[in-house]
């Protein structure tokens, strides 16, 4: 389909989209949605939000927060096609239409669409970069990174409103494009999984059996490690590293200290930290020495994907750790990069999941982490193994990076596609689906971002204030 604009446009009065097609309106959200506040429906399924795909049914088989089951009477009902958004994460795109009748966290606002509003169209609009910037302007709070978008502010926000048939057409078009994009992303993720499996096997062999085929072996005493070279040691983490768990999140100034940037589990990505969304918390002067991350330190996720680990480097900004992150500083007998390779193997083989505490959220506590055994070759051999791993894994790493880059590019293309359709830069009234334009919910699920995931774990409790 050739993309062409509408024949005529008019001024919208909005700085973030100056021109809209003739026939489109700009209305406050209060004209499009009503506020739904209904509790006491404990038999409905739990819903959660994905930053990329919107509201979805929570996977109860892999439930992390068991206490949710004990507080369902406090959760809000969302009727199918209602829009639910996380008050503190709406600025990130934590919003979407309910796929079925269900329950959402008290940290959510639920709005019911009036007849002239297609909730899927508005969910696309609300997740555009331009609209999320407006959300920031309308959000309120004592501390910037804990701002909330309450209903009273949401209803005052202006939105673009095409005639209802055009809303429906735009949604149909974007769903088809999403299905094609999702299939592309799934193919790239499958490739990444295969390459990662190859890399995992290489590293696993190197850190448990070494790279010298002529050495003799001895039992390690650990079932999932097996035999190790006879001149290697096997030591628990507490003997080869200092381990510190971060502090509880504090957003109020208490005692002598300062607001400083802190890392949480979402910042800890495999092998390399992600510092794009770092917030600040209050840290007292007496805590700074212990909680500051230094060059060479390893960061290990205490919650979420437990055991996920990365290494901190000099060029990264000054940061501290919140209590979902362990700081691991190795002793002279252990190179941090060699230990990181072992953490990568153990995490991807599910060894950390086997030992976590699961009273509520899955926790890899400090008490559990420091007892995990690791292989300890002589330091020069560790260095040689790390060099070997770097050489052998370089082609795999490059292929994995290319696949990730292609996913990033297709996501950027999707964002532009949505923005053009939602703001009327292209006229889709004549579009019709083709024979290959099938759409299924299974296809669309691949749009979800594994790293962003659900926002529930960090924010559920905030709705109870």
Automatic annotation (TrEMBL):
Residues 429-465 are annotated as: Disordered. Residues 229-387 form the Type I restriction modification DNA specificity domain. One of its GO terms (biological process) is DNA restriction-modification system. InterPro entries: Restrct_endonuc_typeI_TRD, Restrct_endonuc_typeI_TRD_sf, Type-I_RE_S_subunit. The keyword DNA-binding applies. The keyword DNA-binding applies. SUPFAM superfamilies: DNA methylase specificity domain (SSF116734). This is Type I restriction enzyme specificity protein. Belongs to the type-I restriction system S methylase family.
């Amino acid at each position: 389909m050739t993309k062409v604009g509408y024949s005529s446009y008019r001024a919208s009065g909005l700085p973030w989209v100056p021109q809209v097609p003739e026939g489109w309106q700009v209305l406050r959200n209060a004209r499009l949605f009503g506020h739904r506040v209904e509790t006491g429906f404990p038999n409905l399924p739990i819903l959660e939000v994905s930053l990329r795909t919107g509201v979805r049914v929570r996977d109860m088989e892999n439930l992390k927060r068991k206490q949710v089951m004990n507080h369902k009477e406090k959760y809000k009902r969302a009727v199918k096609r209602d829009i639910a958004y996380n008050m503190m994460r709406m600025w990130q795109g934590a919003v979407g239409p309910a796929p079925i009748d269900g329950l959402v966290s008290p940290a959510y606002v639920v709005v019911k669409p009036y007849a002239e509003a297609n909730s899927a169209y508005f969910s696309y609009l609300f997740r555009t970069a331009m609209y999320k910037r407006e959300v920031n302007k309308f959000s309120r709070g004592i501390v910037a990174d804990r701002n909330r978008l309450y209903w009273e502010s949401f209803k005052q926000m202006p939105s673009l409103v095409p005639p209802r048939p055009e809303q429906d057409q735009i949604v149909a078009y974007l769903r088809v494009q999403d299905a094609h994009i999702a299939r592309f992303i799934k193919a790239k993720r499958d490739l990444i999984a295969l390459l990662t499996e190859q890399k995992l096997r290489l590293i696993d062999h190197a850190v448990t059996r070494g790279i010298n085929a002529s050495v003799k072996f001895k039992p390690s005493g650990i079932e999932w490690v097996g035999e190790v070279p006879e001149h290697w040691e096997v030591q628990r983490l507490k003997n080869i590293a200092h381990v510190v768990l971060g502090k509880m999140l504090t957003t109020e100034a208490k005692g002598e200290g300062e607001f400083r940037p802190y890392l949480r589990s979402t910042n800890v990505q495999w092998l390399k930290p992600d510092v794009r969304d770092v917030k600040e918390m209050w840290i007292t002067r007496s805590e700074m020495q212990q909680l500051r991350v230094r060059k060479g330190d390893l960061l290990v996720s205490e919650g979420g994907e437990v055991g996920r680990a990365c290494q901190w480097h000099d060029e990264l900004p000054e940061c501290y750790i919140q209590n979902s992150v362990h700081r691991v500083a190795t002793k002279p007998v252990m190179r941090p990069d060699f230990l990181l390779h072992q953490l990568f193997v153990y995490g991807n083989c599910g060894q950390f999941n086997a030992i976590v505490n699961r009273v509520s959220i899955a926790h890899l506590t400090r008490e559990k982490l420091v007892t995990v055994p690791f292989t300890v070759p002589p330091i020069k051999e560790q260095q040689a193994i790390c060099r070997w791993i770097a050489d052998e894994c370089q082609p795999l790493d490059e292929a994995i990076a290319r696949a990730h880059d292609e996913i990033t590019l297709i996501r950027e293309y999707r964002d532009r596609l949505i923005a053009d359709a939602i703001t009327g830069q292209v006229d889709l009234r004549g579009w019709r689906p083709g024979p290959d334009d099938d759409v299924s919910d299974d296809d669309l699920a691949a749009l979800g971002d594994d790293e962003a995931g659900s926002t529930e774990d960090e924010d559920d409790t905030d709705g109870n204030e």
